[in-house]
Design a protein that fits this description.
8 helices; globular; Arginase, Chain A
Length: 293
């Protein structure tokens, strides 16, 4: 029987960050959630559940017992008095030391995406964020705060990033008008995604430069992942999300530099959805590894 290392994603042996190909980064940050709480417990729950996943991925034929080399980094914890923008600055500085490696961040609330992506992207204006979510997250402010889970993609666009959103089905009028007026934002709404899937797939295949993938688990239908702070009906199915991951990982014209999985509310009585989201995170690494080989 193989030895399981419980503090390591997938239970694989510990590898130092400077020797790793992949860095898994726990970000148990939760300060601006609007409804259901508990995302701060998700990174630990995902890592625990990942130790129950087979190391061989049958779809990509990647065997994690053979590689890539994975370092599960120390969690970036938040001080109770620390403002979100201060936390994000620390995350950005920490993540910048991992450039050249693939970083998979485990949230935590969606706000953490800004710190991770900005720490990894060498040139935001020539980079693309691929964003799976039920919500637009394009508000200028939320409850008077510029830095919040509902504003994170607006902050990314402010930095000059191109943004492709998939599965959105909850928008304010302000966000709707912003999308229509901004040529850096392409939003594939859930209600017409079937008719636009081919268009969206071609767009992903044509990406160039650095790409960052951000998956809010409420982008999936609640029948797949109900345990999230603000679930919305009519979301993506499992195979649809896997197809998106496959496309952004397999392009020869662009380079996927990192990803995050956020907004899981961990189950107080595992397994809940913890193992489903751990499997999703493992799929990201498997497809990245296949495309990177």
């Amino acid at each position: 029987m193989a030895v399981v290392y419980p503090d390591q994603f997938l239970g694989v042996p510990r590898v130092a960050a400077d020797a790793a190909e992949v860095v898994v980064l726990p970000l148990p940050f939760e300060k601006t959630v609007s409804y259901g709480t508990g995302t701060w417990r998700a990174p630990r729950a995902i890592i625990d559940a990942s130790c129950q996943i087979e190391l061989f991925d049958e779809e990509t034929e990647v065997d994690f017992s053979e590689g890539p080399l994975i370092c599960t980094a120390r969690a970036v914890l938040s001080d109770t008095e620390e403002r979100p923008e201060e936390y994000l600055r620390r995350v950005r500085e920490y993540v910048s030391s991992f450039r050249g490696r693939f970083v998979l961040a485990l949230g935590g609330e969606h706000t953490v995406t800004y710190g991770v992506a900005m720490g990894l992207l060498a040139s935001p204006r020539s980079s693309t964020i691929v964003h799976i979510d039920a919500h637009g997250d394009l508000l200028e402010s939320l409850d008077g705060e510029r830095w919040a889970h509902g504003t994170v993609m607006k902050r990314m666009v402010d930095e000059g990033c191109h943004l492709i959103q998939i599965g959105v089905r909850s928008l304010s009028r302000q966000e709707h008008e912003f999308i229509r007026a901004n040529d850096r934002v392409s939003t594939y709404l859930a209600h017409d995604l079937d008719s636009r899937w081919h268009e969206m797939a071609e767009r992903l295949g044509a990406l160039t430069g650095e790409v960052y993938l951000s998956i809010d688990v409420d982008g999936l239908d609640p029948s797949v992942v109900p345990s999230t702070g603000t679930p919305q009906p009519g979301g993506l199915g499992w195979r649809q999300v896997i197809d998106i991951i496959r496309r952004v990982s397999g392009s020869t014209r662009s380079r996927l530099v990192g990803a995050d999985v956020v907004e899981l509310v961990a189950s107080p009585h595992p397994p809940g959805c913890d193992i489903v989201v751990a499997r999703l995170a493992a799929k990201i690494l498997a497809f990245w590894a296949r495309g990177h080989a």
